[in-house]
Amino acid sequence: MKTVRIVGVPEHFNLPWHLCIENNEFSQHDIDLQWTDVPEGTGKMCDMLNNSETDFAIILTEGIVKDIVKTNSSYIVQTYVQSPLIWGIHTTYNSELNSITDLNNKIAAISRFGSGSHLMAIVNAKKQNWDTDNLKFEVVNTIDNAVIALQNKAADYFMWERLMTKPLVDAKIFKKIGECPTPWPSFVIAVRKEFYSTNKHIVEHVLEIINNTTREFKIIPSIDKTIASKYNLNVNDVQNWLSETRWSQKQISQKDFELVTGQLFELNLIDKIPTYQEFVK
């Protein structure tokens, strides 16, 4: 039995992995897939890949691309979710900030530097034609800490996937004042180079198993109710999310890759534009 360590955020996007584990689909192929939830998100998962604390990561595209340019420690082996991630832009419910334009020169709560919440705050600022050199950040690590930071006015706004923050909006803890979709596929599957070089066949088996599940995921009976129950979400919200979400069973395209790297370079988040062949296996 080959032990394979994998990390991802504890969110609805990753339920297909948990279903495969529960159904013993990996163990049937002599793979002991050990999943670890990482609520801190992409920045933390990049650190875990770089420190050999995990073999796989289900990770935001822009975050892992930025990290690979810096560290050269991982490969992108496949797109996981092809559809964009819709980032909700939130303030506290009673905040006097009521529109995206009100957020210029305000403090963004972020999970970590290099995380999606950090990078997308910069993408959003660029979209609004703000001076990105003036952006200010407060590191909060988790959604729970973001709530505290906004309530204590240590930060003014917080960007996170809109379905996961919807319960906070419904509870009148957060107020959603806008959205910012990623211009590229939301999630990819990354693998440590060292692991890939000696376990290519294992990587291929893992991808084959998860791809078989994501192809059929939307037609699993009562999957909307399962997601809603497991992640404390509203069934109607889950149904809308399912209708918009497209999983992928293919490698990231060169076009999408160049879109990400070009945007990151333009925002001065990477200091060079790598070639597609350097990153992709």
Short description:
By secondary structure, the protein is α/β, with parallel strands linked by helices. It has helices at 15-22, 42-50, 61-71, 116-127, 143-151, 162-170, 193-198, 200-216, 223-231, 235-244, 254-266, 276-279; strands at residues 2-8, 31-37, 56-60, 74-81, 86-92, 107-110, 136-139, 157-161, 174-181, 187-192.
Describe the structure.
- The chain is α/β, with parallel strands linked by helices.
- The chain has two domains: 2-84 and 185-279, 3-Layer(aba) Sandwich (D-Maltodextrin-Binding Protein, domain 2); 86-181, 3-Layer(aba) Sandwich (D-Maltodextrin-Binding Protein, domain 2), CATH 3.40.190.10.
- It has twelve helices and ten strands.
- The protein has helices at residues 15-22, 42-50, 61-71, 116-127, 143-151, 162-170, 193-198, 200-216, 223-231, 235-244, 254-266, 276-279; strands spanning 2-8, 31-37, 56-60, 74-81, 86-92, 107-110, 136-139, 157-161, 174-181, 187-192.
- Strand 6, helix 4 and strand 7 form a beta-alpha-beta unit.
- The chain is globular and about 55 Å long.
- The protein starts with a strand and ends with a helix.
- The model has no long low-confidence stretch (mean pLDDT 96).
Short key terms for the protein model shown above:
281 residues, alpha/beta, D-Maltodextrin-Binding Protein, domain 2, 2 domains, 5-stranded mixed beta sheet, 12 helices, 22% strand, globular
